[in-house]
Design goal:
With 214 residues, the chain is an all-alpha fold. It is built from 5 helices and no strands.
Length: 214
């Protein structure tokens, strides 16, 4: 009797890890979806700030107004944008790490399932998420690759105009300002694409359907 009881306890202990993993799966998905929404929020904020920075830069070339005040508005917005970009990068890295961990969990679960139909369905789910993840990765990589020279151009403008803040200086910088405007638009387009991918992925991962905005 004691032997049977001990065996039963041992079987229960062995079953706990699998049960815990099954119970944790929806919670894990919830957290990943939340991180995706945090990333989307960061993307939205940086997109708004990007517009404000480019507008402030182009306001320097507009007639009327005090150049000193315009220059300060431009540099303040530029500094804010760069700080937000650094924060968004950190948010993206955290979201990516949790997403990869979740996908490994899905793969591990699929490997343990014996029923062929359920196994195939879970494996198909990972395949369904793959293009959405690739859209996010491609868009954010493109945004980063354009943002780096874009921000350097803004910093060059800041340094140049800081030492020649007059109509002649602004006119001399017009070509670079036009380039920055074009690159800013490209960064914004890439961020918009990434945002759409993030929302779609969050909706696919969220247990029970699309997540509520936070």
């Amino acid at each position: 009797m004691r032997l049977m009881k001990a065996s039963l306890i041992a079987l229960m202990i062995l079953a706990l890890p699998a049960a815990a993993m099954a119970a944790a799966a929806p919670d894990k998905a919830e957290k990943v979806a939340a991180k995706m929404l945090n990333l989307d929020k960061a993307i939205a904020e940086i997109t708004t700030q990007l517009d404000a920075t480019v507008n402030a830069m182009n306001a320097l070339a507009a007639q009327g107004g005090d150049l000193t005040s315009k220059y300060k508005a431009f540099t303040d917005n530029m500094t804010k944008l760069d700080k937000m970009a650094a924060k968004a990068k950190s948010t993206a890295e955290t979201a990516r790490a949790q997403r990869e961990e979740y996908l490994k969990q899905v793969q591990a679960a699929a490997a343990q399932i014996q029923n062929p139909e359920l196994k195939a369905t879970l494996e198909a789910r990972k395949a369904e998420l793959a293009p959405k993840i690739e859209t996010i990765r491609t868009s954010l990589t493109s945004a980063r690759d354009t943002y780096t020279p874009f921000m350097q151009d803004l910093k060059d403008l800041s340094l140049f105009l800081g030492n020649q803040l007059n109509p002649t200086g602004v006119a001399s910088a017009s070509t670079l300002m036009a380039k920055a405007t074009t690159n800013g638009a490209k960064v914004k387009a890439d961020l918009t694409s990434a945002s759409e991918g993030v929302k779609s992925l969050a909706a696919s991962i969220q247990p029970g359907g699309a997540p509520a905005a936070k």
